[in-house]
């Protein structure tokens, strides 16, 4: 079974480029990787194809993996036909959703110039995006006290201010921040605060 472990592995089978959007909420992804050809990205953006792209519409309504040629949706702007002139002749769309209450889903679109994607490649791309989706899930092990301290860090408060506001010692605040950094894999309190803000936890 084919397994993709890095962006280099992905590029090996998506030779014309790819786009991955992780944890897309109401409007914007938590993180995105755009490795599509710049001329196509410029053309796509200039013509505002996002709203009309059948691949994107499929990705918001489905899970799994499908070849572009298997997407049975209207394409009034001829997005997929125009993509071919930029070397994106064959493609696959993948989408995953784990039932999270925030409604966040992740998806990707991958292209190559020479042939349709094989089923094991489609399965591997879906597994790769699903893995990234899980890795970007908000942590569930942060305590309310840790989140409260991180919120104050995000607001720019100093250690002494946080301790005074919470009615605890500076040592207690340091411990809360240390615990939060460990759980998040963050190097600094500011980074930890930015991460939980990104997750929508504060």
UniProtKB/TrEMBL annotation:
Keyword vocabulary terms for this entry: DNA-binding, Transcription, Transcription regulation
Domain of life of the native organism: Bacteria
GO biological process: regulation of DNA-templated transcription
Keyword set includes Transcription: yes
Stored SMART domains: HTH_LUXR
InterPro entries: Sig_transdc_resp-reg_C-effctor, TF_LuxR_autoind-bd_dom, TF_LuxR_autoind-bd_dom_sf, Tscrpt_reg_LuxR_C, WalR-like, WH-like_DNA-bd_sf
GO MF terms held by the record: DNA binding
SUPFAM superfamilies: C-terminal effector domain of the bipartite response regulators, Pheromone-binding domain of LuxR-like quorum-sensing transcription factors
One Pfam family of this chain: GerE
The name this protein goes by in its record: Regulatory protein SdiA
Species for this entry: Octadecabacter temperatus
Lineage, uppermost ranks: Bacteria, Pseudomonadati, Pseudomonadota, Alphaproteobacteria, Rhodobacterales
Encoding gene, per UniProt annotation: sdiA
């Amino acid at each position: 079974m084919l397994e993709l472990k890095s962006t280099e592995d992905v590029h090996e089978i998506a030779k014309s480029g790819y786009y991955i959007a992780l944890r897309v909420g109401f409007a914007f992804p938590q993180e995105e990787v755009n490795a599509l050809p710049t001329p196509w990205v410029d053309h796509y953006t200039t013509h505002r194809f996002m709203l009309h792209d059948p691949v994107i519409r499929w990705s918001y309504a489905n899970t799994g993996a499908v070849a572009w040629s298997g997407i049975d949706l209207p394409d009034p702007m001829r997005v997929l036909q125009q993509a071919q002139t930029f070397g994106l002749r064959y493609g696959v769309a993948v989408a995953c959703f784990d039932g999270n209450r925030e409604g966040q889903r992740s998806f990707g679109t991958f292209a190559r110039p020479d042939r349709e994607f094989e089923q094991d490649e489609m399965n591997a791309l879906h597994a790769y995006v699903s893995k990234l989706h899980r890795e970007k899930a908000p942590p569930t092990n942060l305590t309310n006290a840790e989140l409260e301290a991180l919120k104050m860090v995000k607001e720019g408060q100093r250690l002494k201010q946080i301790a005074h506001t919470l009615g605890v010692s500076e040592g207690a605040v340091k411990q809360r921040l240390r615990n939060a950094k460990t759980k998040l894999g963050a190097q600094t309190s500011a980074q930890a605060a930015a991460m939980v803000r990104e997750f929508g936890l504060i």
